[in-house]
Design goal:
126 residues, single chain, 62% helix, mainly alpha, 7 helices
Length: 126
């Protein structure tokens, strides 16, 4: 990880941690948790890292930790945005597939949430 990337990720983690703790009692949407897609257990860290890098190339507007984190949180249904009402990330993924919010990255059909999670993982693993 380059020094600049380390500083960006560290700052984003600190900001998310501070604001997250103040706004909700649970850590369901913690940056570290979001950067661990379920795909890790299926594809392994190398493939998830590559998917994340490719997603960041395909969607340059989301090539920042803060933007990815906000984009994932923005996909939550309104009731789960209230404190203590966090929906599991798996529900966001399921809702993406149900709503046809998918993207093909490196030959995989992924929900947009999964792809964003892979992109976060790629930042934290770089």
């Amino acid at each position: 990880m380059h020094r600049r990337q380390f500083l960006r990720v560290s700052a984003a983690t600190a900001v998310v941690g501070l604001t997250g703790a103040a706004c909700r009692p649970d850590a369901a949407y913690d940056l570290q948790a979001l950067a661990r897609p379920d795909l890790l257990s299926i594809l392994g860290p190398d493939a998830v890292h590559e998917i994340g890098l490719r997603y960041r190339e395909l969607v340059p507007a989301e090539d920042q930790v803060e933007v990815l984190h906000a984009a994932i949180l923005g996909m939550r249904p309104w009731p789960s945005r209230l404190p203590g009402m966090a929906a599991p990330v798996a529900e966001l993924v399921r809702d993406d597939f149900a709503g046809d919010r998918t993207i093909i990255v490196r030959g995989w059909v992924l929900s947009v949430t999964e792809a964003r999670q892979c992109a976060l993982f790629s930042f934290l693993r770089s």
